[in-house]
Amino acid sequence: MISFQIPPATLEIVDGDISLQDVDAIVNAANNHFWMGSGVAGALKARGGPAIETEAMALGPVEPGDAVVTGGGQLRARHVIHAAVMGQDLQTSTDIIERATRRALELAEYRRFTSVALPAFGTGVGGFSVRACALIMIDVIRAHRPRSLRVVRLVLFGQNAYLAFAEAAGERLGPPLDGPPDCPISA
Which end of the chain is more exposed for a tag (fewer CB within 10 A), N or C? Predict the structure, then answer.
């Protein structure tokens, strides 16, 4: 894990399983109808139970870039924010990732959550570049003005994604608060 200051909150970047995060809300990289197939959605449904999908689908469809909040089922997280990162065509874009990230943070603030975990939007089934996604999401997080949020955690699947996000955060936010001595980012 590596951390950066985004006053009054902390941005944490972690290589891990998002479905195991102990936060107020986990953000699902969803389609705009909220059916939960593979990737992050599949992992959340498998660990949290089918009630998450049933509740989400009842709130859809929405426009790509929008989001809804459901319960967390059997997840450690009490809630899931389903951010529509793509439509039924499973395609995404810079604009959609930017809007979905912003909307997920807005809903977290509206619900007065103090911690939220997000995946790399659109980089799985959507085929979006991990590096481009990292820059987009970190720019939105940097521009966000936290009120209730104290921890924004980016949970990446695999070292390549982790390193891409750590580098992007170093470029956009400056030196990390902590991290291993051989941290791959330069400030």
Answer: C
